[in-house]
Amino acid sequence: MANSNLPRRIIKETQRLLSEPAPGISASPSEDNMRYFNVMILGPTQSPYEGGVFKLELFLPEEYPMAAPKVRFLTKIYHPNIDKLGRICLDILKDKWSPALQIRTVLLSIQALLSAPNPDDPLSDNIAKHWKTNEAEAVETAKEWTRLYASGA
Amino acid sequence: MDSEDDMHDANDIESLDDFYSGETAMDSDDGDENYGFIDNDSDASDDSTSHRPHRQQQNYTILSDADIRQRQEEDITMISTVLSIPRVSASILLRHYNWDVSKVHDAWFADEDRVRRVVGFLEKPVHDATRNVTELTCGICFESYPRDRMHAAACGHPFCTSCWRGYIATSINDGPGCLMLRCPDPSCGAAVGQDMINVIASEEDKQKYCRYLLRSYVEDNKKTKWCPAPGCEYAVDYVMGSGNYDVTCNCSYNFCWNCTEEAHRPVDCGTVAMWILKNSAESENMNWILANSKPCPKCKRPIEKNQGCMHITCTPPCKFEFCWLCLGAWSDHGERTGGFYACNRYETAKQEGVYDEAERRREMAKNSLERYTHYYERWATNQSSRQKALQDLQQMQTVQLGKLSDKYMQPESQLKFITEAWLQIVECRRVLKWTYAYGYYLPEHEHAKRQFFEYLQGEAESGLERLHQCAEKELQCFVDDEGSQTKDFNEFRTKLAGLTTVTRNYFENLVRALENGLSDVDSHGACSRTASSKSRGGRSKPGSSRSGGGSSRGSGLDGSTHWSCEHCTYANVKSATTCGICHHHR
Ligand SMILES: [Zn+2]
Ligand SMILES: [Zn+2]
Ligand SMILES: [Zn+2]
Ligand SMILES: [Zn+2]
Ligand SMILES: [Zn+2]
Ligand SMILES: [Zn+2]
Ligand SMILES: [Zn+2]
Description:
The complex is a heterodimer.
Chain A: H1 8-19, E1 25-29, E2 36-42, E3 53-59, E4 70-73, H2 103-115, H3 125-133, H4 135-149
Antiparallel strand pairs in A: 1-2, 2-3, 3-4
Chain B: H1 3-21, H2 36-39, E1 60-63, H3 65-83, H4 87-96, H5 101-110, H6 112-119, E2 135-137, E3 144-146, E4 150-151, E5 159-160, H7 161-173, H8 194-200, H9 203-219, E6 224-226, E7 235-238, E8 246-248, E9 254-256, H10 269-280, H11 282-292, E10 293-295, E11 302-304, E12 311-313, E13 321-323, H12 345-352, H13 356-407, H14 416-441, H15 447-480, H16 486-515, H17 519-523, H18 525-535, E14 562-564, E15 571-573
Antiparallel strand pairs in B: 1-7, 2-3, 4-5, 6-7, 8-9, 10-11, 12-13, 14-15
């Protein structure tokens, strides 16, 4: 089994994620690979994603925690910092990663990103442009997508 | 035809005369223009040989590995002392401000708190591990360890040794960013200095870190660069704003500090970049194909025309015979087309405009290619001639100098004039080489400038040829010949040293004139043209045989327009009564 010599840190993190989950976030390891997590994030209230349930996948590479986890949205989402492949533009997943960060902090940051889109640092140019030129309309589209793709999967 | 014309001529000959002697208005820095040769002429001193070909006052310093280290240490010590901070902090601070000592000063004394925040210097720990616990939990691996196995930066955030080691190793492997390492705690940002690296990191990582630190001192510093010669480990510290970018490394490589290409005076960095791009451009090959080949009308393979005859036979297996001009089958040619080898269908077609466009494009491509080839060939020839001269110089120093020293009973120190001559040849070949890139980019419509330029280039070439010949052939006679007297050798010394000085002066003025964009020509371009053709006497038609520049190779100065100084061999213009170099009377 690939999980035989899982670092103590990953085991502890996993235990804590399961025993004291962060509000609106669930993360559970896959049965055949303890480094692969199925994640669900609830759309934050007061955001265009409210009421949506967003699925993500999270993978801990061999170098973790010296290297950042790899995270990706599986549910389609209309957001200026998330592209159509679900990749996320978030500094702590790249150059601002620190081994003292954890899965929990990463997921909380992603949740916060849903509450506060940042069209000035876009991953998806079209959506960012839409956000900047007509925010109300962009928010409507985001709500529409949430209804279409993220409701009660 | 009239007096005005004559006056122009007179003026111009004078200015050309000045051009040789190094006393023109282009001479801005008179200070170092008192050549040793002139000064010491009276006592025929050998001091003339103590002058190096690069005599501009040195505006750069070559730094060895040890020099770099020492300078870095000195800067760190200075900042550490003045700011009363540890050396490790001084190093981080200097790195942050790209090793600019005065910037560090300014920033620190303007707002110390801000600087501390930015670089991550904490005055006291932000994390207070409870004093009396014996075990702490590492924030990375979540294991508990006794206090003494934990480490923390100034902030106090504790991580275990192995996590620190992994953290540092990851950062060092990611590159020079490790020089700005921070505490792993994401909310912290406390700087992690070399002191911690030295305590925790593996031996290999420590050395990598040291290397990055040293490299940073050169690479992040605006006034230093590595010597671009392959394998060379010297760096060059350059005095910014001091003009001339030519740098000679201790490895003997000569390069431009600004663009780090090989030294290229009198051509500017932009022209060099263009020229290098031009040389590597695939488009030239395309032009060549376009100009010299056409597709076979049957099999479409490009066929090269390398004979005058228009009857082309494609290569096997095709072997199609066709007419180069009209691309029609050769079998169609004959009486009907106006004779066997004189196809008039081309002319007819051209009149009808059928082949006009394609033919015109081909013609243009061919012309531009010929022009480029002309300059490129001469550029490349001087380049290889320079390489050869460098080899000869080495041979000279390792073998011939010793022989000469024995034969004429001269200490080798007395033979420095030979090395000087060769160094001058090497330098002149380099300059001459770049004048061909200069010529290539000199606009065609600036006729006066072009003619003046080509005249100067031609003179430079023949002058250098004279020196090269003297240093090569005449010297060889003294090496080989058994009957030569010490007296003859001393005369030879005077001649070669004189030629070296003359050539040096000429080339230095040439470089300045070209760097000034031949601005002298602008004001009275017409007379330069007159003068340059006149001063060449009947030897050549204006702007014809000389237009190649390179064609003048080996042709010495014409006896009807110049007289050679008996004392120093300098070729003076006919009108001069005293030598422009040594002031001896004719
Ligand atoms: Zn640890
Ligand atoms: Zn810290
Ligand atoms: Zn070098
Ligand atoms: Zn340059
Ligand atoms: Zn053919
Ligand atoms: Zn024909
Ligand atoms: Zn003289």
